């Protein structure tokens, strides 16, 4: 910070120590400092764009064909839709196959085209909770079916918390892969 | 001169009436079906919400068509907890508490030791303004000004808007009109309109721009419970404060566009970081 303040001085003379031979301000009068502080942390304090001749040449065009190349560089405003064709993908990702009213319940994909199943770890890694979100329709049927599926595979009863208003089910324990496998079977 | 003016005004009135009639006939023959295609429409569990498109240029209600609205925005889960969080945030972030008490150093006097430390048989005291004394300073009292500014997480604010819009629509408190043009600038016209449509008593009209038609601006100027608002000012508190929310069709579409953009934008992680006052 101190270094920044030193560089922020506009005149070097204020930094140079006083030598008796030089013409300097009489002692007792402090030197005039034009600028006390300059914020270098922001680009707004850099000099403004003035003369276009100093920069690369450009011409203004309104050709829609050329604009396509610009659009390719611009950031997309939505997440681009992946190929939703139902086949094997190297990543293991599966497209949603189920239609909204195939089952009494429905779980749409997230905006990233992923399944809304998450693992939450808290209490210093002592508790693991699997969360299934974005559930529409009959959440209680879904809960009982998932419960049966998971309990069959882990051979023990599991704690479940269902919130109908939020459309969310929480399983006590890490069953993310089991839930995802179940969803893949159904095509969610 | 007077007669000439009379003739001119009468002509104007007649010409207006004529155009008005033709307009009405045209609208009757072709109802507008305002429907959009969405990228995720194959994955809707709920069907798009259907709302009548109404007019306000006559007191009588005319159904001009039907508007289909995105279920993620207008049929969201009625999260009253999120609505309450939003209302609390809107009340608190602008609230500055001016309650103030003085600490012992600020209370006048008390510089002198009231009596010697030892020998009097009395409790030791160093100042008459000590918090133990009556009329002394206050410990941990309210200090002015206390700001209560905080930011609600971005997506809680978005969910507040969708929840409130959905609740309003589900409770039959949201209406969609074609535009804000009314034939008269009399407040009585707006009052009659609201009475006839069973709206209100308090009504919030929302349009895309902040420059509204002159007639409705003049007519609602003196009625304090009927307000106009642009889309950029729409908020949970105002929607709840007014009994009825009346959107123009383009306003409803703009709200939908903006909220859907935020629900699907790829750079949402930036919005979810901590809010800093100096966001350079």
UniProtKB/TrEMBL annotation, chain A:
GO MF annotations, alphabetized: structural constituent of ribosome
Top-rank lineage group of the source organism: Eukaryota
Gene3D superfamilies the UniProt entry points to: SUI1-like domain
Lineage: Eukaryota, Metazoa, Ecdysozoa, Arthropoda, Hexapoda
Chief place of localization: mitochondrion
Protein name per UniProt: Large ribosomal subunit protein mL49
Pfam family, one: Img2
Keywords, sorted A to Z: Mitochondrion, Ribonucleoprotein, Ribosomal protein
Intracellular or extracellular location(s): Mitochondrion
Any GO CC annotation of this UniProt entry: mitochondrial large ribosomal subunit
Protein family per UniProt: Belongs to the mitochondrion-specific ribosomal protein mL49 family.
GO biological process: translation
From TrEMBL, chain B:
Localisation: Mitochondrion
BP GO terms, sorted: translation
Coiled-coil portions: none
A GO term from the CC aspect: ribonucleoprotein complex
NCBIfam families xrefs: rplD_bact (TIGR03953)
Protein name (record): Large ribosomal subunit protein uL4m
Molecular function, one GO term: structural constituent of ribosome
Similarity comment: Belongs to the universal ribosomal protein uL4 family.
Main location: mitochondrion
Source organism, top-level taxon: Eukaryota
Organism: Tetragonisca angustula
Disordered, as annotated region: 108-139
Claim: Cell membrane is one of the keywords in the record: no
Keywords: Mitochondrion, Ribonucleoprotein, Ribosomal protein
């Amino acid at each position: 910070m101190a270094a920044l303040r030193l560089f922020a001085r506009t005149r070097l003379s204020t930094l140079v120590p006083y030598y008796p031979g030089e013409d300097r301000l009489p002692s007792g009068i402090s030197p005039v400092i034009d600028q006390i502080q300059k914020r270098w942390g922001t680009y707004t304090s850099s000099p403004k764009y003035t003369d276009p001749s100093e920069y690369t040449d450009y011409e203004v065009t309104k050709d829609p064909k050329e604009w396509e190349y610009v659009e390719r560089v611009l950031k997309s405003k939505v997440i681009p839709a992946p190929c939703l064709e139902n086949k094997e993908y190297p990543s293991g990702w599966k497209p949603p196959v189920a239609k909204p009213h195939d089952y009494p319940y429905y779980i749409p994909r997230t905006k990233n085209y992923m399944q809304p199943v998450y693992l939450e770890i808290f209490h210093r890694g002592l508790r693991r909770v699997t969360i299934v979100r974005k559930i529409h329709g009959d959440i209680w049927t879904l809960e009982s079916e998932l419960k049966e599926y998971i309990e069959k595979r882990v051979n023990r009863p599991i704690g479940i918390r269902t919130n109908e208003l939020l459309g969310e089910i929480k399983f006590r324990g890490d069953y993310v892969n089991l839930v995802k496998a179940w969803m893949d079977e159904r095509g969610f | 001169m007077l007669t000439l003016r009379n003739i001119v005004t009468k002509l104007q009135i007649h010409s207006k009436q004529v155009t008005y009639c033709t307009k009405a006939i045209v609208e009757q023959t072709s109802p507008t079906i305002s429907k959009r295609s969405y990228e995720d429409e194959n994955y809707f569990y709920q069907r798009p919400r259907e709302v009548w498109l109404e007019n306000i240029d006559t007191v009588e209600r005319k159904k001009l068509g039907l508007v289909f609205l995105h279920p993620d925005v207008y049929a969201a889960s009625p999260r009253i907890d999120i609505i309450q969080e939003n209302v609390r945030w809107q009340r608190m972030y602008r609230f500055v508490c001016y309650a103030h008490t003085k600490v012992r150093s600020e209370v006048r006097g008390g510089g002198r030791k009231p009596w010697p430390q030892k020998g009097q048989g009395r409790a030791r005291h160093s100042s008459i303004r000590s918090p133990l004394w009556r009329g002394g300073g206050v410990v941990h009292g309210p200090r002015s000004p206390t700001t209560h500014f905080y930011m609600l997480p971005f997506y809680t604010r978005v969910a507040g808007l969708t929840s409130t819009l959905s609740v309003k629509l589900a409770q039959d408190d949201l209406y969609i009109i074609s535009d804000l043009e009314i034939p008269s600038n009399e407040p009585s016209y707006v009052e009659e309109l609201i009475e006839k449509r069973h709206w209100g008593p308090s009504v919030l009209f929302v349009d895309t721009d902040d420059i509204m038609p002159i007639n409705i601006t003049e007519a609602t100027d003196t009625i304090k419970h009927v307000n106009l608002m642009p889309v950029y000012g729409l908020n949970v508190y105002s929607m709840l404060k007014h009994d009825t929310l009346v959107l123009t069709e383009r306003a409803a579409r703009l709200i939908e566009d903006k909220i859907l953009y935020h629900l699907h934008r790829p750079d949402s992680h930036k919005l979810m970081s901590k809010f800093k006052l100096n966001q350079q």
